[in-house]
Write a structure and sequence with these properties.
This protein is 28% helix and 27% strand. By secondary structure, the chain is α+β, with helices and mostly antiparallel strands. β9 and β10 form a beta hairpin. The N and C termini lie far apart (56 Å). The mean pLDDT is 95.
Length: 402
């Protein structure tokens, strides 16, 4: 029986555990939070900080694992690559290559060095160094930690006088105490945040979508919904396919799922914003399996265990698909979820994670999501009609305060 170590214990690991069990693997989940939901479904739990590479390596060596994966868990991606390299386990690529992809500052520098479209960007560790270089950027700018995910610590800054505050906010979410400042690229249509897959260095499956936000939420940069297909032009989608393939070749990457963020700017250019060798959060790979039938989660497990992939190929979307990230726009106590009867026939899956009476936040980050709703529409017109005003059709109801 092959042993798979999964770094992280959030609910996004559940489909990975299921796929591993269906492949006959023994599953070890690892993090420092024993009450995380995924540990209830694994065969073994290992209490270790997944950002501590040496401790995770010792735990992996002791358990004689055959594969390691960090799926929808950004903090564990570099650690997984480190452990895989040290133990000679299957991995998408070298520890160095994965480290470049996972550090926003290094990734921007790598893109610029190799002639990719890239916004003006620079990473820093010292606040004062950044404040001295405010004229190097084209305002407005985005400030974010170099090593966080889920939109934590991200701020758009229009006024240089507010830069210090944004930097300090970003640093509060950075494990390595690094931050990046980059030009804000005004997007044409919707940006894309979705999953793709390479096999032996060849991009076999690529997807683009519409990443949508809730401007009424506490953090308007936290993704609140997704829809497929994308609003990007076919020309830019094809350009991005070629550029992602070029990136894979430059970094000598092999077989892996990737969460890739791309954007079509109003400047007429297409940009790769992020490319992480992991499955994305918010159940993106599962939604893509609904839409195309391609089993990205299963194949991510196969890749981690050194097993051959199966059925990873480009396939069209079967209809028009959307996923709503259920959340409250303000803090309170959850009462119920209201779904308008007019869209009931479009609901493919309703996945609510909390019970009435649970305290909820105002969606300041992705970890404040309370569930997901997967929908299928026959036409793009109907999808757009619903997704323009999702709050009109799906409401998180809070208990009235006494």
């Amino acid at each position: 029986m092959k042993k798979l170590m999964i770094l992280g214990g959030s609910r996004y690991a559940l489909p990975v555990i299921k796929a591993a069990h269906e492949l006959g693997a023994w599953v070890i989940t690892a993090d420092y939070l024993p009450d995380n939901i995924a540990h209830r479904y694994s065969d073994e739990y290992c209490n270790v900080s997944i950002t501590d590479r040496e401790a995770t390596l010792r735990a992996a060596r002791e358990r004689e694992i055959d594969g390691i994966i960090s799926f929808a868990c950004d903090p564990g991606v570099v650690t997984a690559a480190y452990v895989a390299e040290k133990l000679g386990l299957p991995s998408v690529g070298s520890f160095e290559a994965v480290s470049i992809l996972q550090n926003k500052g290094r990734f921007r520098a790598f893109l610029a060095e190799h002639g990719f479209n890239v916004p003006t960007a620079k990473g820093y560790t010292a606040v004062e160094d950044a404040l001295r270089e405010v004229d190097a950027f084209h305002w407005p700018v985005i400030v974010k930690p170099t090593d966080s995910a889920g939109s934590k610590g991200v701020t758009r800054v229009d006024d240089p006088a507010k830069l210090r505050e944004a930097i300090e906010y970003a640093l509060s979410f950075s494990r390595g105490k690094e931050f990046i400042i980059e030009d804000f690229i005004t997007q044409h249509g919707f940006s894309s945040d979705t999953d793709s897959f390479s096999v032996d260095g060849e991009l076999k499956f690529v997807s683009f979508n519409c990443q949508r936000f809730d401007n009424g939420a506490e953090n308007p940069y936290t993704p609140a919904a997704y829809s497929w297909p994308s609003s990007m032009t076919e020309e830019h989608q094809e350009e991005l396919r070629e550029e992602i393939q070029r990136l894979i070749e430059l970094l000598h990457l092999g077989t892996s799922i990737y969460n890739i963020e791309t954007r079509e700017g109003t400047d007429g250019k297409a940009y790769i914003m992020e490319c992480s060798p992991r499955g994305g959060g918010n159940r993106l790979a599962e939604c893509l399996e609904y839409a195309t039938g391609v089993k990205l989660v299963e194949n991510a497990v196969r890749a981690a265990l050194g097993m051959p992939t199966v059925g990873v190929e480009q396939k069209p979307y079967d209809g028009c698909w959307a996923e709503m990230i259920l959340h409250s726009d303000r803090p309170g106590v959850f009462d119920s979820l209201s779904i308008d009867p007019s869209i009931a026939d479009a609901v493919v899956e309703r996945d609510l994670w909390i019970e009435p009476g649970t305290k909820v936040g105002g969606f300041s980050a992705a970890n404040e999501a309370i569930g997901t709703l997967v929908l299928k529409f026959e036409t793009q017109a109907r999808l757009q009609e619903i997704m323009r005003e999702p709050g009109k059709y799906v409401k998180v109801m809070l208990l009235e305060q006494q």
